[in-house]
Design brief:
The protein is of the alpha+beta class. 34% of the residues lie in helices and 33% in strands. It contains five helices and seven strands, in the order E-H-H-H-E-E-E-H-E-H-E-E. A seven-stranded mixed β-sheet has the order 1-2-3-4-5-7-6, sandwiched between helices. The chain starts with 5 loop residues before the first strand and ends with a strand. Keywords: Acyltransferase, Transferase.
Length: 169
């Protein structure tokens, strides 16, 4: 019997290509039919390996989850950017390759980020999800997130609602 090791660690510069691949696959899976095609392509294409390497080099808080030696997902996080909300931390992005979704890895990645924020005395956390991304909204609700705010974001000619889910303040 073999056990595949799951590792969650800070991203390294040599992870940039794998993170870009995860971003590409996850965004196409999550947002095809939600974000207009041309806008989705533009958003995916701007986040290539060069972009991720630059973010890692700038010490952006990025963790990767590897499963059996393959980068299966990533999360970016830090201080809350929404000044009107009383939560100090924010998960900016949390994505898994589609084939790794639905088996508990997202929850593990989420909990690792939450522990790291708590370990840095960050009180409360928020994450934004497009309301039309039902899988993401259901995921955050299952993890105990409460809807605390909403806003509209424009993608080309389309306006989409985003929901803020929060934990502890």
């Amino acid at each position: 019997m073999s056990t595949d090791a799951i590792e969650i660690r800070l991203a390294r510069p040599d992870d940039a290509h794998a993170i870009a691949d995860v971003h590409d696959a996850a965004w196409r899976y999550a947002y095809r039919g939600v974000i207009p095609g041309r806008e989705l392509e533009r958003l995916v294409e701007r986040r290539g390996a060069k972009w991720w390497r630059y973010a890692i080099d700038r010490k952006t808080r990025i963790v990767v989850m590897s499963f059996g030696g393959v980068i299966a997902g990533y999360a970016t996080y830090g201080r809350n950017r929404a000044v009107g909300l009383p939560y100090q931390g924010e998960i900016f992005e949390l994505y898994l390759r589609p084939e790794y979704q639905g088996i508990g890895l997202g929850k593990r990645l989420f909990n690792a980020v939450r522990r790291d924020l708590n370990g840095h005395d960050v009180k409360g956390m928020v994450v934004w999800a497009l309301a039309d991304n039902v899988r993401a909204c259901d995921f955050y609700r299952r993890l105990g997130g409460e809807s605390v705010d909403s806003m509209v974001e424009r993608f080309g000619e389309v306006k989409l609602q985003k929901i803020a889910f929060a934990w502890g303040a």
